[in-house]
Amino acid sequence: MESTNMATGVSNALELGKFAGSCIGVICLVIALEFLRRLQREYDTYLVKQHRVRNAQIHSSVLDNGSDTGHPLDIEANGMGKNDTNRVQVTSKSPLPGRAADLTLQRLVPTVFQQAIRALLHMLQFAVAYFIMLLAMYYNGYIIISIIIGAYIGAFIFSWEGIQITDA
User: Fold this and answer.
1) CA-to-CA distance for 11 and 19, rounded, in angstroms?
2) pLDDT value of position 105
3) Cα–Cα distance between 39 and 87 in angstroms, integer?
4) Buried b (16+ CB within 10 A) or exposed e, 139-154
5) Which end of the chain is less enclosed by CB atoms within 10 A, N or C?
6) Smallest Cα–Cα separation from 59: which of 2, 106, 119, 20?
């Protein structure tokens, strides 16, 4: 057991230091949660960009082969097998016959490895959020304030993204 010097209050200061460290740790944990959320968005954006590049290459090779007739494209019939892991579903329409098709609807189906990474990121987010919820259940005002401060700092740092403006 630790002895307490009543004149200096050393033990009390040590306990306050530990509690302050706990509050800083809670702030960092909430910031880490916001980082994981941003990481998930960035990974999904990366997958979409990868898909668009691959789709553009496929689309340009289909057009180069002269198989654009103004009818909806069927990528599977133009060189890609039904069991290909990088299969792309494309629906397109051409406003005028004989013109290049405009891609209007695309669906990305991640590979097993890509989905495993997405699921891992989700699991980490879920676990960290659950720990934060348990910390809030201490019903300690300082811990709850630390959670709120961490959410603010994390959102400030990791939600700083451009806002897309579209003309209506």
Assistant:
1) 12
2) 58
3) 25
4) eeeebeebbebbbeeb
5) C
6) 106
Longest dimension (CA), the chain: 93
Contact call for residues 25 and 128 (beta carbons, < 8 A): no
46 SS3 class: helix
What's the count of helices (H) and strands (E) in the chain, helices before strands? 3, 2
Three-state secondary-structure class, residue 105: strand
User: Which residue shows structure tokens 């891992």?
Assistant: 120
In 40-159, which ranges are E strands? 89-93, 102-107
What's the token pair of residue 144?
A: 């709850």
Q: What is the DSSP letter of 92?
A: E
